[in-house]
Write the structure tokens for this entry.
Amino acid sequence: MRWLWCVFVVLVCAFAAQADEIRLKDLVEFDGVRGNDLVGYGLVVGLNGTGDGIRNAPFTEEIMSNLLERLGVNVAGEAYRPKNVAAVFVTASLPPFSRAGGRIDVTVSAIGDAKSLLGGTLVMTPMNGADGQIYAVAQGTIIAGGIVAEGEAARVVQGVPTAGVIPSGARVEREVEFDFTTLQSVRLALRSPDFTTAARIEAVLNQEFGRRVALMLDAGTVELDIAAAGMRSPAHVVGRVENLTISPQTKARVVVDQRSGTIVIGEDVRISKVAVAQGNLTLRIEEAPMVVQPNPFAQGETVVVPRTNANINKAPGTGLAEITGGTSLSELVAGLNALGVAPNDMIDILKSIKAAGALHAEFVVN
């Protein structure tokens, strides 16, 4: 059926607890092991006439003047309108434990009215952290992710030519002041907080070391005592435990996206006994005015007589269907698919079941 092409239903089915083993590093974030965001403001040169219009982007002229003056070229009071330069924001993420001299990837995005950054070169750009300090310097040739083709009366754009990346385009100049070896304990922060998962992590860690080294603080935090683990440093402890496997537990959740018709559900979702009826009303109004003219050689005027046809049609629905208690949502969606229910109607049915209190899951609508 055609409606099957416009809906993408994803059934997320969880395996049995003993088969659903996930590594600890994929479930938690270790305290202190985190990156830092960097941002810089720079200039891209070497564009093929696709740069900023100086009148619409005066900040481009300002940064270009400052750059040339630092290089010993005095352009004060000069009137120049180059088309091969563009002002850009440069962003990157400084990975944890990055050392001076290391290389990181950067993303370059135009902020003016430049048409494309294809073939451009980013001039040396300092990149600052949230504290205002310079942590890296970026420079290099941009790899743009789009194509622009234009003529006198038409223009075609594919992708986003005003943004690009520079692989290994920034060199780390300053290290983040954080001594991981001084930690007396390491906290494990769950990406999806859950009491059952946190308790299982605590049990697995204690079993790994053969003594009580881990303590669950709440649904999202497990604390690991470095001294009780009997190892030389927190790095050795993290390296030993990050590949341990855990069977996580998650909340029953239903996620729907009305724009794309996507429905994502979990196997743990259950529906109580409920009856569902679905149907549509179609209102159709047609205007068919009639022109009335007088007879030949008769006195009179041409008159337009309005005629309106209004009809209300009730499309056949799925009828009143009874859903037995304990039915999984995947079984319900499979049944609605078999009945030919449209995607938007399917989402409305799920909303109504949730409003009736029969859908036992967290319902998320995007």
Q: What stands out?
A: Residues 36-172 form one domain. Residues 1-19 have pLDDT under 50 and may be disordered. DSSP finds six helices and 24 strands in the chain.
